[in-house]
Amino acid sequence: MPVNIKHGHEPNWRNPSDWSGGLRWGSHWLGIDSTVNLWHGWQDVDSYWIRLNSTGLEGERRVQRRTLIGGSLAAPVGQVTLKSELGYSPDATRYRLDTTKFAPGKTEEKQLLIGLDYLTGDWFFNAQYYNRWLGDVDNAIEPSRRQLVSLGSRRAMLQGQLNLTGFVVHDLENHGQYLSLGLSYDFDEHWQIRTGIDNFSGHQDSFGWFREQSRWVSALRYAF
After folding, report:
1. What total number of domains does the chain contain?
2. Cα–Cα distance between 85 and 35 in angstroms, integer?
3. Which CATH number goes with the domain that contains 146?
4. Out of the domains of life, which is the source (predicted)?
5. Which residues are CB-contacts of 130 (< 8 A; sequence separation ≥ 6)?
């Protein structure tokens, strides 16, 4: 059944009340990097309201405000760098569905990222764990939690002319996977050739949704 979507409020840069802004504080103490961040702006994904009435389905697309509060830490321990990030939003959205309406409900969102980087010789390794919690809303159709783990590696060879990269993400909640493998070779300071694959698999509620976007890409690049 077709849905007639109309546009709601759009930010206008001429109106000061629609402006975005943020503050950032950073510190480097005893080798530890830390930041505290505050941002108030607009969500980067539009929100949709769809209602069923006597004439059929009607919809509206809106851009909504969002406030983000967060911080980060990065501490070297030998050849390993430990990292963590925390984020909180009091006005996140979580979609809900009842008998006549599909709409985002306002709720809070908490995010946690823990990771480590390891560099030895020509090898670089990275591991991360990400967790997101959404608060309760009535008749929610989005999950309240998402957990991801990722592993990445990079190997430089031939004095840095040849680079091999690998990256994999696993969705712990919905059992989906994303795999990226790449190779690049610099002929000189201008010419570079690249090739690689991106593969999406697993459950449709996770990376499996993008299964048709799996691809192999090769490119020849020239930089001035």
Report:
1. 1
2. 9
3. 2.40.160.10
4. Bacteria
5. 111, 112, 113, 146, 147, 148, 149, 150
**Tokens coding 24:** 């950032």
Q: 13 in helix, strand or coil? A: coil
- Residue numbers of the domain that contains 110: 26-40+67-222
Tell me whether residue 141 is in a domain: yes
Span 131-153, pLDDT tens digits: 999 999 888 888 889 999 999 99
Q: In angstroms, how far is the first alpha carbon of the chain from the final one?
A: 51
How many CA within 13 A on the CB side of residue 26? 5
pLDDT 10s digits, 96-119: 887 778 888 889 999 999 999 999
pTM for this model (two decimals): 0.83
Q: Where are the alpha helices (DSSP H) in 80-131?
A: none
In the chain, % helix, strand, coil (3-state, to 5) comes to 5, 70, 25
